[in-house]
Amino acid sequence: MEKINELFKKQKANFNNIRDNIKGLKQESSFRIDKLKLLKKVLEDNENKIYAALKNDLSKPPFETFTTELGMIIREIDFFIKKLSKWMKPEKAKTSWLHFKSSGYIYQVPYGVVLIIAPWNYPLQLSLIPLVGAIAGGNCTILKPSEHSSATSRLISDLLEQTFNRNYIAVVRGKVNTAQKLLKKDFDYIFFTGSPEVGKIVMKKAADNLTPVTLELGGKSPCIVDKEVNLELAVRRIIWGKLLNAGQTCVAPDYLLITSKYKKQFIEKAKKYIKKFYGDDIKNSSDYSRIINNNHFMRIKDLLNNSQGKIVMAGNYSKDDLYFPPTIVTDININDSLMNEEIFGPILPVLEFEKFPEIFSIIDKQPVPLALYLFTKNRRKQNKVIRQIPFGGGCINDTIIHVSSSHLPFGGIKSSGLGRYHGKTSFDTFTHQKSIMKKTNLFDLPFRYPPYENKLSFIKKLFRWL
To answer: Which of 154, 222, 235, 400 has the fewest CB within 10 Å, making it most exposed?
Structure first.
């Protein structure tokens, strides 16, 4: 594999070559759509290999791999293929009387060479959905998948290498030092998914070259259960969202805020649904994932061991198998170890509230979350939470599913991220909106030129009509 410096230079040269040789919007649109079709084909042709790789890394069942990874990517590609030609057309913009006999346009042009750094928890989806946006935007791409999900990263590398020229799309595998070397290059755009701590490092590196960035981070996403709720349905959806991928989901419900009225019932129903989903022997369930590695396993276990709460549901751990059982902890406060950082595992801390307004002060003490979930039939409370609590996005009366829509922008705010993607928003993210005004040469009004004497009062009157 060539060195990063050489690869970066070749991609820069290739981007310029593509730009010089593709003439016209129709040809450019066809070029990008053809690349998207190639990506879709290689994924569909290697579906079983994808299932095997995700099984190896995270013990993901094929159903979860398809619904949360492969299926999402294919649907995103289909959406882009259908819409891209329309999105690429220059958008006509209004002009004022001040610009008489002119036309305004917004052109969406590629950045150039972009860097995508992906995480390990959804290693296929979080690598390739940003890549779809980069391709559709007309960029060349260097993709750095996570070293922790080694089987999937190796497969991504193999599939993309056999499908695309490395000067167009390249996968660079490696550990932290590899990412550090990549971040020293003057990329035209950086897209990072990972922890807030690493996100800060990426942003500092990007600042050296004033490179625009998207940061998809995480945080402690609250899940609120109010009195006016279908409790049976709420429990089923919360437990599903929490235990998906063994809790290793950036938008998983991190902690539960529940009215005291339903606390006991929630725990009873949660135990029932965990058994219904995974059986009596959860460890041997083919539908329950594993923790990614030993370090992450021990981090989660330490959070639990240091908690002052009451464990009301747990099980036997298996460090050798990286099996961490579904765990529910009650009687904790805002200062508990389980509230100090994002859990990113199958532990659900339960906090109670008596009156609904209490939730605002509790959530306010945490960093701004990537997601928020509210279970209530009360529209007034729904609107109050949406309008008053800062968070990236979320659901009313469900969990996680907002992420799967190509029609909804996905991203965080402040500590949970910067920027958006998915669907048209991905196209906007990976392109620069270039504003152009085209003016006639038939005449030129002399009024705007110096000398300005005796013109101020007239221009003030004119501005009132613009």
So the answer is: 154
Summarised one tens digit per residue, pLDDT across range 111-167 is 999 999 999 999 999 999 999 999 999 999 999 999 999 999 999 999 999 999 999
Please say if 250 is a catalytic residue: yes
Domains, the chain, in order of start with CATH, read 4-217+417-433 (3.40.605.10), 222-411 (3.40.309.10)
- Residue 216 is among the residues annotated as catalytic for this protein: yes
- The model's pTM is 0.95
- For every residue of the chain, which 3-state class applies, written as one string? CCCHHHHHHHHHHHHHHHHHHCCCHHHHHHHHHHHHHHHHHHHHHCHHHHHHHHHHHHCCCHHHHHHHHHHHHHHHHHHHHHHHHHHHCCEEECCCHHHCCEEEEEEEEECCEEEEECCCCCCCHHHHHHHHHHHHCCCEEEEECCCCCHHHHHHHHHHHHHHCCCCCEEECCCCHHHHHHHHCCCCCEEEEECCHHHHHHHHHHHHHCCCCEEEECCCCCEEEECCCCCHHHHHHHHHHHHHHHHHCCCCCCCEEEEEHHHHHHHHHHHHHHHHHHHCCCHHHCCCCCCCCCHHHHHHHHHHHHCCCCEEEECCCCECCCCECCCEEEECCCCCCHHHCCCCCCCEEEEEEECCCCHHHHHHHCCCCCCEEEEECCCHHHHHHHHHHCCCCEEEECCCCHHHHCCCCCECCCHHHEECCECCHHHHHHCEEEEEEEEECCCCCCHHHCCCCCCCHHHHHHHHHCC
Other CB atoms closer than 10 Å to residue 52's CB: what's the count? 16
Residue among 140, 223, 250, 395 flagged as catalytic = 250
**Digit-coded pLDDT (tens) for 337-391:** 999 999 999 999 999 999 999 999 999 999 999 999 999 999 999 999 999 999 9
Burial 430-453 (b: 16+ CB within 10 A, else e): bbeeeeeeeeeeeeeeeeeeeeee
Q: State the sign of the Cα–Cα–Cα–Cα dihedral 349, 353, 357, 358.
A: negative
